[in-house]
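Following up on my earlier thread - several people asked me to post the actual chain instead of describing it. Fair enough. Here it is, all 530 residues.
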Amino acid sequence: MSVTPTSSSTSSTSSASSSSSSSTASTSLTGSTLLGANGSLGNGTVIDVNAILTKLDAVEQAPIDAVQSKINQNNVAISDLGTLQSQISAFQTTLQAFTDPLSYSDKTINSSDTTVATAAVSSNTTAQAGNYALAVTSLASSYSESFGGQGATYSIADPSLATVAGGTAPSMAKFFGLTSGTTFTLKSGTNAAVTVDLSTSTTLDAVRDFINQSTSTSGIQAAVVNTGYGYSLNISTVAGGAASSIQTTMGSSGSGSTITPTISQNGTDAIFTVNSQSFKSPSNTVLNAIPGVQLQLQKAGTPAVGSTPANPVTSMITVTSSAADNAQTLVSNMISAYNTMMTSYQQLSAYNSDPTKQGALYGDITLATIMNSISYSLMTGFTQADASGNQQPLLDNNGKPVSMTSLGIELQVDGTVSFNSSFFNNAISAGVFDKLAQGFTAPTKTSVDSAIGVSGSAYTGMLATDVTGLNNENTYLQSQVTDMTTRKAAQMAEYQTQYAALDALLYQLQSTNNALTPTFNALNNPVKTN
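Reply from S.P.:
Thanks for posting it. Predicted structure:
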């Protein structure tokens, strides 16, 4: 049976419609922002926009983080490569010393009697180890002559005063035996002459000083001595030997009459033997009578006189090579530097099933190639240039190849090296280090030079190229990060707009639904009348 609504029902319906209109009217647009009961729409009035945007931001950020993670990994790898470059450079320094021929040419000299002669190395490369018997018969001396002193006609009591005593001497000219004028000339061999003018050099000291001013060109030197018989001017040649002499003449041209000194002494040569071979020298400083050695003769024996044989004084000169001692130090330094380098490499390139614990240089093929090359080179033989400059295998005295391994640098299972004293001692016995003193090429140094370069402090080798490659990759990846960040910002702004609009729309729909619900309820539930 149908029920006709009463006026009361109609009133109720009208009231619901009025309520719906009022509710709908509460949703309106102000500018471009939809306002609702909870204020500004689009900020999570119906849906949690911020939560949605946070999750979307994480999704958009993930590929950026992946690229940034690769950049960070590369930065760690670059830093680790720098560490290895430094350690390989330290190894290179030890190799530089090891491959320097001079490292094996050091000699030690000893004289059994230093009162007879002292000895020093003049050339490490030519000095040869051995014992050399030295016998000195006479020492070298310079030609000398003196004016004044015992037997002189005139004497000088004070060399700083122009006073000549004895007889009726009117001036110092008489002291030097001048019969005319006030000048005399001294000349030694082919050296420049020196002319003394007694009118300007008026004292014995002044004459001495004037002569010594020209010693470097005249080869003549002077000294004033007190003989007890008065002061004497002693003149001698700088160069010694039997051929040394001084011509003393009156006048400034050197062509005047010869002046006779109070006393003169001819020069003598040093006479000595080395291993019974006779030598003569105008100087007591002797070079190369023993190859690469400088002798300083200090004392002489008795020369032969008539039927009396010479009775020289003797000393044994011993030349010892320091090559083996130096080599052991060099090898020890190389082992230490190599192990430091290799230990770092193994740690920095170690594999781990957990990528976060894996070495930053794991999988670096260039680095692995370099390190394998260095390790392999330890077993590769040295070479040495032949007379034509061509590199030939370096063999010891037993005909065996020489390598780092044969010198006692032995590879271990863990990649490091240790010192094998037996191999090293065998190398000494086989004369290896004397051969190294002649120059050689070590493959290990070649490998290391290739790895880090040889141009001063700047790394230019394969590792530098590896670092450059990583830096270039980082530059590219950083540009990707920049581009992706820009795109993300634009995408997030778009998401913000879309979800804000969706939130506003849903609020609008919800508000409309709320407004219409009473009406629908009234229509579906009409008022019953009796």
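Residues 79-103+323-460 form one domain. That should answer part of your original question.
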